[in-house]
Amino acid sequence: MERESERKIKTQGCPALGRDRARSSSSTTKQSASPAEDSKNKRKASPDNKTQRKKRRTSEVTEPCHSCKEDGRVRGEKRKVGGDGEGPSEERKKRKTSKCAKKPSVDVARARFKARYEEQNQLGEGGCGSVFAGYRKSDKLPVAIKHIPMDKVFCKHVARNGKELSVEVAVMLKLAKSRKKGEVGTSAPVALLDWYDLGQELILVLERPVPAEDLLKYTEQKGGCLQEEEGRIILKQLVNAALELQEKRIFHRDIKIENILIETGSNTPRVRIIDFGLSCFTKKTSSYTVFYGTSTHAPPEWYSCCHYRPGPSTVWQLGVVLYEILHKDSVFETIDFLTNRLQISNELSNSCRDFLNKCLTRIPYQRPTLQELKRHHWLA
């Protein structure tokens, strides 16, 4: 469910357009906000575009973020010194004792996981962990088992009880509240069925739709692009899914074709949303100055003003998804689109072109809201 092709980054400051970082780098990159001016020519299709798409997606680097604060402030923790200034403080003693006390519970949790689930072949591997196919032993229900090293948990959320947990877990637990107990497959986001904190590793047990494949593979198998009508069916479901998340004040932040599953068990493709590892909870006025997501899909306002908001950014991402599935073997990059090296095909219908142009409007407040997109005549 999670692919190597994903690029998940945290960027502070303004980004340099189209600039990649070396795989060995682990530091936060400060980037320039000025657009690239190296070329104003339109991109020409080449016979190896499909190969290029795969290569560019798999060459992107995943870097950890050191703060879950969207406003750029790093949450620090002060160490308290012992009263006498010598030897380990009481806090350190308690920490050691607590660590030893937790070990049996970790072993119990691991044993419980192995008793309940059978892990099978690996489905994918990325910068934040690995995903395996599996099934629940009690009823043979197919599941996806996601292993995340604790140092790869990019963002965390502090619950009301003061406990800190992975934001991916927190978001999916909130989504689960709207479903009946044990119910799966009823909404676009895949369900979190179970999770285990094993100290050095977090294990998420997720719903695994069968048969299904991610939208990237689905599009490639259709010859590199989809027919406009099929794209309309998929986008209509995506807009509804994005509205569902918005109503629950959840910002996915990385909607793209690799993070969209298509169920293929019927004549009509069904959309499912995966990978909430970079998501966050929002407020009505939320605005972010630390970028989490796929850098090549960052909205124009990130490049020009170094901030972005949930609604306009999600609309931009939906436009990116639609562009990539309707343009043969195309890899969308914001800078290429802004400098006219990528253009919307004239072969699309006028209403589809209008929908795309509205999603990919440069100025964020001029983009339609998700509610307005849902009412667009192309989706009607």
UniProtKB/TrEMBL annotation:
Signal peptide: none
Stored InterPro entries: Kinase-like_dom_sf, PIM1/2/3, PIM_Ser/Thr_kinase, Prot_kinase_dom, Ser/Thr_kinase_AS
Any one Gene Ontology cellular component term annotated for this protein: cytoplasm
Single GO molecular function: protein serine kinase activity
List of residues binding ATP: L123, G124, E125, G126, G127, C128, G129, S130, V131, K146, E207, D214
GO biological process: one example: negative regulation of apoptotic process
Span of domain Protein kinase: 117-379
Compositional bias per record (Basic and acidic residues), positions renumbered to this chain: 37-51, 66-83
Domain of life: Eukaryota
Membrane-spanning parts: none
Positions annotated as active site in the UniProt record: D254
Compositional bias segments (type: Basic residues): 93-102
The reaction(s) this protein catalyses: L-threonyl-[protein] + ATP = O-phospho-L-threonyl-[protein] + ADP + H(+); L-seryl-[protein] + ATP = O-phospho-L-seryl-[protein] + ADP + H(+)
Annotated region (Disordered), positions in chain: 1-105
Function comment: Proto-oncogene with serine/threonine kinase activity involved in cell survival and cell proliferation.
Name of the protein: Serine/threonine-protein kinase
Lineage: Eukaryota, Metazoa, Chordata, Craniata, Vertebrata
